[in-house]
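Chapter review: from sequence to fold.
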Amino acid sequence: MTTAQEVLRSAIPGTPVVAAEISVRGRTHEVLLKLESGNPTGSIKDRTAAGLLMALDAERPLRPGTVVVESTSGNLGLGLARLLHHLDCRFVAVIDPNTPRATRQTLVAAGGELHEVTEPDGRGGYLLTRLREVRRILGRNPGYRWTDQYHNPANPRIHRDTTGPEIAAHGGRDLDAVYIAVSTGGTLAGVAGHLHALDRGIAVVAVDAVGSLATGDSTGPRLISGIGASRPSAFLTSGSYDRAHRVPDAEAVAACRLFRADTGVALGGSSGSVVAACLRDLASPRPPRRPLCLCADSGLAYADTLYDHRWIASHALSAPVAEAESRLRADGIRFRLKCAYP
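The token string follows.
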């Protein structure tokens, strides 16, 4: 009989890397893109979900009928819903208005029960409101269990043990910079823990949203799911990353749209933020020699948001996005994939 631990370990197949040529200010650079869309539900959060559930099962077995609750902007919920379905368990996802419609539909199709909060948390997002709702649900249902992606050390541990080694192997000896979006901080802390231990001088670059407290010190409205947070990360310390970029929504959307225009491939919002941060460094006097962008997901779930002119206009982003696109093109930004996209 297959155990829960075996089911959960099998959820981490390893993901591919493709090379892209990016032209910036007359110079062409090779940038590696690690495509976490290759995970079973299409994002890096499949790894996080497996790690969190393995820890929960080790603490007390996840028996059929167990109900697990989590606050999620979308992708972690998809990973949890899929795995809990395989274990004959139930999943309650606490989401917010920024959760894409396609993600909601997939969550429900996987058997997830949705609880949406609509009250902003006063810090530019909905995280604190989602967490209050999680605690309310747990208080009313003492038998429910919480994976707690925000404090559970299994979050960074799964990335230290899987994502970090894959990045090091794919990047090779010349890898000198890795760009990672930050939200809970688990992925960043875990990958950094592995890369820094190698002592190869690989710079770990945190990519955050403007208005986020994950690495910043001021709050503001944020529209892109999967990046940024309404409070500092419990996993990050001063040594967790070497430097940080905070990317505004319009710049992230512009990077996504230009990448698709040049390559035909749609990136997710946090992936666009990571690419935008890398572009800044490529335009600097001392660009990285062999950078890798950790692309958390694809753009499949964002057709009616980041890639929809009506959505962009409804959030007063039309002019800022157009300005960002013009600025990037003026810098000579062009993208070309060097090999077939998986």
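Two observations follow directly from the output. The chain has eleven helices and eleven strands. The chain has a mean pLDDT of 94.
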